[in-house]
Amino acid sequence: MSISESSPPVTPLYGRMAVIGLGLIGGSLAMAARHRGLATTVVGFDRRDSEMHQGLALGVIDEAATSAASAVANADLVVIAVPVQATDAVLASIRDSLPENATLTDVGSVKGSFITSVVQIWGEVGPRVIPGHPIAGSEKSGVASSNPELFAAHKVILTPGLNTDPGALARLTEFWRGCGSEVLSMSVSHHDQVLAATSHLPHLIAFSLVDTLAGEKDNQDIFRYAAGGFRDFTRIAASDPVMWRDIFLANKTAVLASLDHFTRDLAHLREAIDGDDGAALQQVFTRAKAARDHFSKILSGQAYLNTMTTQQTRFRASPGGTVQGDIRVPGDKSISHRSIMLGALAEGITEVEGFLEGEDSLATVQAFRDMGVTIEGPDQGYVRIHGVGLHGLKPPRGPLYLGNSGTAMRLFAGLLAAQPFDSELTGDASLSRRPMERVAAPLRTMGAVIESQEGGCPPLRIQGGQALKGIDYLLPVASAQVKSCLLLAGLYAQGETVITEPAPTRDHTERMLNGFGFPVTREGAKARLSGGGKLTGGAIDVPADISSAAFFLVAASITPGADLWLRHVGVNPTRVGVISILKLMGADITLHNQREVGGEPVADLHVRSAPLTGITIPEDQVPLAIDEFPVLFIAAANASGDTLLTGAEELRVKESDRIQVMADGLATLGVTHTVTADGIRITGGGYGGGTVNSHGDHRIAMAFAVAALRATGEITIEDCANVATSFPDFIALATQVGFQLKEESV
Ligand code: S3P
């Protein structure tokens, strides 16, 4: 949890700050407090007189004390900055002079041992004892290395207890924030485990490796020829030996656990080398590389929030352009979400190829990481999920933020309704307006406890620990998201869950569950499964997304002379409405090399320019082309005659009101149309340019980029950042085939 991140205070937070131990950390903290005006007076004590004198001379401290006891008398902040093993003696020496209202903190790398020392001296941990640990340092030591900026932009972990005085905690938090740090909070034991793995073990390995090599016969040569990697890797072996000796002894249990784990893994690598097992080596190195590439995201536990597009962008699409080439669009969004969900719930490892690295599916990845699932990657579409089984999810630390993704929110609602823990699902402004009662209501019938906000909108608060029972449910709307949500809840429910759909919707959940060994039967409009059982991890090849291919199918159809191949596109019969509708309009699209990959039909699509004619879109095609209408409206604007869409009121509750937002854009371009409650009539013909607003809807932004191929003027499209939710490389692929399209920051 990040406690605070605002700007530094102007008035001193403490009157008298005592720093016991003027090494690198103590000296730097004293200096930071002085430079930043965080304490009126900073008094220092160090058992070495020379350090104290130097501290005074360098302006690290205001006053040098003659003893630790005299340093802390009258202080309101006391910082213990001595090696861990010296803590006992220092605390004993200040026991009788520590003012009752003073805050006592430390900066050591091990928090459990500090607490043990405090209990030994005072018999309890008082409300103003707040252990701390700045994650900052350097291989330098001594007061002469003091650097008041050492903590700026670094993390500081505080480990308050249940009885900690909130006022004292708030003030200490402000103090560190005043040093430029980001303050985090966690329990003592969690801190010690995390640091054993991320800091203590690497130091041990660095010390050990340098020592081993220094003892080799030809050590001169080894060090002389050691390249940058060795130098980088072993930099920390120049750290203070006494400090590190104490850290290992103080954090013995956690360090030994990490060390044993590492030793086992190292032994496996030894075996692999000895046995010429290249595959085993490659597997470990690939896994490590993927983890390292995503290191900061994994560590922060905030990948989605940190990487999500906050920078607003606009597209400028010049009129004209060509559509030529041979491309593969990114992976299918629906299948990508499901691959992570089922992979996480499966037993064993699931390896995914072709995963869509868009913000929506990354939100799903992050949500599972937040629930304790290890997910490596994504790395160029490769993801490796360490499944935890149906009952292995852990309670998330906070609300699960799902960005723009309706699929994620609705599917998670079903899954989380069945978990033993509470959860909360939140999203961005668009998602926060979308209807969730369509999932909450049937889930409640199954026994779930779910609270939505006004109008049935997110956030959703789900109370865990409910025993669900199966449901026999006729979907009021043809929605694969609602169907999938209920099937996921049904995995945990007692008895049978039967979902009947009024019209066929995408069936990726059913196919993938069967692929994971969990039987789902289909009889006509009914999907049926029984709760219990398990999922078994495996391999998933995500085909290219037909919803992303759709932009290029229309682009090539309307652009004279166009000739384009789209490779490895998913052509599941529940998704091919866009091809059927375009063909009815006269498009020249052919399917080649049709095959089945991991239970999903796939083909290479060849599309060439063809004259389009307006049609009445058959209503049974609407759910099969539900995401493709924005770009189909552009096809209609380029067809001769009228195209009529009916039975598509669902479009009004997608990422935007897609009927109205498209109509507004078409009006700007001068395309004749009439909006109805459940559709639109569009009269084809030429159109001009202008500025249209996508209202943050990715598919509307891309649809108007396609429109520019036949416009007579430039089309500027506002609010395009969300294209990254489903098609992060859209601009690059579109320009590759001949669009004249640029993105600019706003
Ligand atoms: C999706 C189902 C569709 C679709 C959405 C993805 C899915 O929504 O619009 O983009 O992955 O299940 P509905 O099923 O609610 O129409």
Q: What tags apply to this protein structure?
A:
38% helix, 6-phosphogluconate dehydrogenase C-terminal fold, 746 residues, single chain, four-stranded mixed beta sheet, binds shikimate-3-phosphate, UDP-n-acetylglucosamine1-carboxyvinyl-transferase, Chain
Q: If you had to describe this structure to a student in words, what would you say it looks like?
A:
The model is unreliable at 1-9 and 296-309 (pLDDT under 50). The chain contains 26 helices and 32 strands. The two termini are 31 Å apart. β5, α4 and β6 form a beta-alpha-beta unit. It is elongated and about 95 Å long. With 746 residues, it is an alpha/beta fold. It has a five-stranded parallel beta sheet, with helices on both faces. The protein has four domains: 2-186, NAD(P)-binding Rossmann-like Domain (Rossmann fold), CATH 3.40.50; 194-252, 6-phosphogluconate dehydrogenase C-terminal like domain (6-phosphogluconate dehydrogenase C-terminal fold), CATH 1.10.3660.10; 313-327 and 543-745, UDP-n-acetylglucosamine1-carboxyvinyl-transferase, Chain (Alpha-beta prism); 333-541, Enolpyruvate transferase domain (UDP-n-acetylglucosamine1-carboxyvinyl-transferase, Chain). The structure holds shikimate-3-phosphate (S3P). Shikimate-3-phosphate binds next to α19.
SSE blueprint:
Blueprint: E1 2-4, E2 14-20, H1 24-35, E3 39-45, H2 49-57, E4 63-64, H3 68-72, E5 77-80, H4 87-94, E6 103-106, H5 112-122, E7 132-134, E8 155-158, H6 166-178, E9 182-185, H7 188-214, H8 219-225, H9 228-234, H10 241-250, H11 252-274, H12 278-293, H13 295-300, H14 303-307, E10 313-321, E11 324-327, H15 333-345, E12 347-353, H16 359-370, E13 374-379, E14 382-388, E15 400-401, H17 406-417, E16 423-426, H18 437-445, E17 449-453, E18 457-463, E19 472-474, H19 480-492, E20 496-500, H20 508-515, E21 521-523, E22 526-530, E23 539-541, H21 546-558, E24 563-570, H22 577-584, E25 588-597, E26 600-608, H23 629-637, E27 642-645, H24 658-669, E28 673-676, E29 679-683, E30 690-693, H25 698-707, E31 715-718, H26 730-737, E32 739-745
Parallel strand pairs: 2-3, 2-5, 3-4, 5-6, 8-9, 11-24, 12-23, 15-16, 19-20, 30-31
Antiparallel strand pairs: 1-9, 7-8, 10-31, 10-32, 12-14, 13-14, 16-18, 17-18, 20-22, 21-22, 24-26, 25-26, 27-29, 28-29
Helix pairs in contact: 4-5, 7-11, 15-16, 15-20, 17-19, 18-19, 21-23, 21-25, 23-24, 23-25
The site of shikimate-3-phosphate has 11 residues, from helix 19.
